[in-house]
């Protein structure tokens, strides 16, 4: 594509689909993945990852899937399962390759399968993405699956990824049993300023043609986009992709602050709102008084304007709460001054 070739890219660096090849390993995300793997290894039972939209939950979910499949564990994956709770068992069995049938037959088949995996030293893991879509009844169905266990360990490890609504659901009194069974809980959030800039640079670097090194984004443009996106990865992707289009349309090979501003202006529903600072009238008057007083004191010492200067300086003191200058050899106390 001419657009990609213009910037020396082999693929789009800021797509919204979670491409694990472009993953930027932040410290927080690395900690979450390692902790989940540890929780699975010790047969914790249920683990939970919650975060706002666009903060990288699905990317973490895909990374976890890749790691588990690579370790030869048995994995079942459900994505936003908005289904009848009775169908949860059917979906899980289908994911594990277990023959479906009546509910009792499937539960028996699932239990047999999990025991076989346990005997082989393999973990059996159910990953649920967008778990808030399960609703209260669906979450209860998942809890019942977690009851499959031996005397010493859980046979099925369950990892739920969800938005903040998942936490709201779990606070319901009728879901206290599953809430109490969550062994580890993690939260994703926005990036730091440095992470956001490195994130953008990393996505570009992993998407460009080898041997091409010119910087596609200026540092100032990356900072402008990151701040406008409130450091949320998904919003950064949208703004950065638009900024590339703006630069391409203008024939530029580098995205500058001007191009970033064009992308931000085109996305008012996404960017962080900033407030313009306005001076209140008393503060504005105080500033004027301070400036006048400073000039007056320079020219009014030992002149007929001295009294006027003192009056202006007093106004500045009132406006800003400026303390009276301390006495010194250059500024002796008045003969009429009274001791404190």
Draw up the topology in text.
Blueprint: H1 2-6, H2 27-41, E1 46-51, H3 57-70, E2 74-79, H4 88-96, H5 103-119, E3 124-129, H6 135-145, E4 157-162, H7 164-170, H8 176-180, E5 182-188, H9 193-205, H10 219-228, H11 233-249, H12 257-265, H13 281-300, H14 306-320
Parallel strand pairs: 1-4, 1-5, 2-3, 3-4
Overview of the molecule:
- With 340 residues, this protein is of the alpha/beta class.
- It has 3 domains: 2-13 and 192-265, Helicase, Ruva Protein, domain 3; 27-188, P-loop containing nucleotide triphosphate hydrolases (Rossmann fold, 3-Layer(aba) Sandwich), CATH 3.40.50.300; 281-320, no CATH class.
- Helices cover 49% and strands 9% of the residues.
- It contains 14 helices and 5 strands.
- The protein has helices spanning 2-6, 27-41, 57-70, 88-96, 103-119, 135-145, 164-170, 176-180, 193-205, 219-228, 233-249, 257-265, 281-300, 306-320, and strands spanning 46-51, 74-79, 124-129, 157-162, 182-188.
- The protein has a 5-stranded parallel beta sheet, sandwiched between helices.
- Helix 4 packs across helix 5, helix 10 (219-228) packs parallel to helix 12 (257-265) and helix 11 (233-249) packs across helix 12.
- The longest helix is centred in the last third of the chain and has 20 residues, at 281-300.
- The chain is elongated and about 65 Å long.
């Amino acid at each position: 594509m001419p657009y990609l070739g213009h910037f020396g890219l082999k693929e789009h660096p800021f797509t919204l689909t979670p491409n694990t090849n472009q993953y930027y390993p932040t410290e927080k995300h690395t900690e979450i993945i390692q902790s989940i793997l540890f929780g699975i290894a010790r047969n914790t039972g249920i683990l939970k990852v919650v975060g706002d939209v666009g903060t990288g939950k699905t990317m973490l979910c895909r990374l976890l899937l890749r790691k588990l499949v690579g370790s030869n564990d048995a994995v079942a994956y459900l994505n936003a399962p908005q289904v009848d709770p009775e169908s949860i068992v059917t979906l899980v069995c289908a994911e594990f390759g277990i023959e479906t049938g009546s509910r009792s037959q499937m539960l028996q088949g699932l239990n047999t399968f999990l025991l076989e995996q346990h005997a082989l030293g393999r973990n059996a893991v159910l990953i649920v993405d967008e778990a808030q879509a399960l609703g209260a009844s669906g979450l209860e169905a998942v809890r019942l699956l977690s009851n499959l266990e031996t005397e010493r360990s859980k046979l099925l490890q369950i990892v739920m990824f969800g938005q903040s609504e998942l936490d709201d659901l779990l606070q319901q009194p009728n879901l206290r049993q599953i809430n109490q069974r969550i062994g580890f809980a993690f939260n994703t959030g926005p990036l730091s300023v440095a992470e956001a800039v490195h994130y953008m640079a990393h996505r570009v670097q992993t998407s460009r043609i080898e041997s091409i090194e010119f910087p596609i984004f200026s540092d100032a443009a990356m900072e402008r986009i990151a701040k406008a996106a409130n450091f949320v990865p998904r919003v950064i992707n949208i703004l950065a992709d638009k900024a590339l289009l703006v630069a391409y349309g203008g024939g530029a090979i580098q995205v500058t602050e001007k191009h970033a501003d064009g992308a931000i202006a085109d996305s008012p529903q996404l960017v962080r709102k900033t407030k313009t600072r306005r001076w209140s009238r008393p503060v504005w008057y105080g500033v004027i008084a301070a400036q006048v007083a400073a000039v007056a004191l320079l020219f009014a010492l030992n002149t007929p304007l001295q009294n006027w200067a003192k009056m202006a300086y007093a106004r500045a003191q009132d406006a800003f709460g400026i303390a009276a200058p301390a006495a010194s050899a250059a500024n002796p106390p008045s003969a009429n001054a009274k001791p404190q």
